[in-house]
Design a protein that fits this description.
Elements: H1 2-16, H2 21-40, H3 42-49, E1 50-58, H4 67-74, E2 77-89, E3 95-107, E4 112-125, E5 131-140, H5 143-149
Parallel strand pairs: 1-5
Antiparallel strand pairs: 2-3, 3-4, 4-5
Helix pairs in contact: 2-3, 3-4
Amino acid sequence: MKKIIQLFILFSFLFSFSQSSAEKELLKIDTEFAEMAKEKGAKIAFEKFLAEKAEFITDNKLPITDRKKIIDFFSFSKYSYWLPQKAVVSKSKDLGYTYGISKTIYNDGSKDITEYYQYVSIWQKNKKGQWKMILDSGHIHPTEIAEKLFENK
């Protein structure tokens, strides 16, 4: 039993250092992005975090390759929030991606609709050294699984 506890402590210690500081920074940026969307709306959050040249890809729609149109697309949501799960950053520390689960509520003209997505966002540092999203992609996620993640959000 003592060896199992020692192994658990060792793996916990190693796991805590497995993510680089750049990955922790990018995960924090995606979390700040999510919090801003939740508090101020997706439109304002995308205006801040989206790169000048960006693209958006989702189910049953053509890719959106214009920054303003991407921001407009997200301005229709009544509620948008996501739970970043992981970040990975290149060795050069200027390109990375995040992924997680998102929840969006919008009105289709007659009723509110809630949808959950598995998302992947690709980020790049701009000339000022700020992480900006260059590609966002979201695909429908099963409601039964995702609802549990958002119970208290």
